[in-house]
Amino acid sequence: MTAHYLVEGRRATVRIDRPEVHNALDRETLDAIADGFRRASADHRVGVVVLTGTGERAFCTGADLDEQQAFLARPNDYWEWMGHFIAAIDAIHGCPKPVVARLNGMTVGGGNELHIACDLSVAAEDVILRHVGPSRGSVPAGGATQWMPLLVGDRRAREVLLLNQPVTARQALEWGWVSRVVPRAELDAAVDELCRELLAKMPEIVRATKAQLNFWKDLSWALTIRHAREWLTIHAGSLEVAEGLESFHAKRPPDYERLRLAIEHAGEDGGARPGADRPGVTDAGGPRAGRDDDDRQSADQPGTGGGEGRPERERRLRETTPTGDPLRSVAAPDESGDPLDQEIYDE
């Protein structure tokens, strides 16, 4: 099992158990999380649920990238994967018992979306929270775009989700992103205390209070998640996702200039933008426009009705990119200066 369910007295614990990959989420793990919360919801012995991860390095770092890699070739399979993620979030958020996130380590991306699906959280003071979607190839719409503005305010949510900078547990506490922060040695005691406080309340009233408190979270989630699932599926085989995954595995920053050049010069050769190799599909997602050989030849030659022409265009691009290659201008790996990225890379 990659996530475990344990009941002790009135408290249930769901623990993600993939420390070798920073407790990343694959289908099996998502299903085990959802199953644990469904069991806790149905068990009248349980009055409070704790969600945590194994080890001290990571609570959860989001989607397992090895699984995501497969969606480049079969992007429509992402739709099914996202169904597992949504089910896990729904099971946590919809649990009628109060849910406490025990943040034992870095909380990143989809891991934070699990965290903010909970009612309350306690973080060790050395924990870092972060989103990396726009930096690495995913829209953080599995809970973050919907709920972070409710927790930290619109401007701070935009800072977290667009800039992707690490945020310390202490800063997160000041912003209202976490409930309590304690020294690591006191983490378990603080979680125990919070659980005792929650159990010293009337269970039916707690359940109804949660339902009322969840109004705005329910509304934003219900209005957006189906559309997010569709868009993420359509984009799962894109050049942006491919570059995000490639750069992660190569332990280098993504080549953002390459992506911008691909958009800037899309369609200039009558087909897909540079680097996009999905057969029969243009940048807009429709069929490629057919062109006969004469049209292709004229498009490649200056002064024959085809515009600037490929040789001249490539020469101009080489002059304006530092590497001389219009599709490659990769920064050196040490330019990222990001210790959190490096920690994940090194595993």
Question: Would you kindly provide a written description of the structure presented here, covering whatever features stand out?
Answer:
The protein is α/β, with parallel strands linked by helices. It has 2 domains: 233 residues, 2-enoyl-CoA Hydratase, Chain A, domain 1, CATH 3.90.226; 74 residues, no CATH class. The chain is built from 16 helices and 10 strands. The strands form 2 sheets. It has a 6-stranded mixed β-sheet with strand order 1-2-3-5-7-10, with helices on both faces. Strands 4-6-8-9 form a 4-stranded mixed β-sheet. The longest helix is centred in the middle third of the chain and has 21 residues. It is globular, with a radius of gyration of 23 Å. The two termini are 21 Å apart.
Quick recap:
48% of the residues lie in helices and 12% in strands. By secondary structure, the chain is an alpha/beta fold.
* The CATH fourth-level homologous superfamily of the largest domain: 2-enoyl-CoA Hydratase, Chain A, domain 1
Instruction: For the record, give the distance between the C-alpha atoms at the N and C termini, rounded to a whole number.
Output: 21 Å
CATH level 1 name of the largest domain: Alpha Beta
Shape: globular
**What percent of the residues sit in helical stretches (DSSP H or I)?**
40-55%
- Indicate the mean pLDDT: 85
Q: N-to-C SSE series?
A: EEHEEHHEEHEEHHHEHEHHHHHHHH
Q: Provide the number of structural domains.
A: 2
The number of helices is 16
CATH topology term of the largest domain:
2-enoyl-CoA Hydratase, Chain A, domain 1
Computed structural class:
alpha/beta
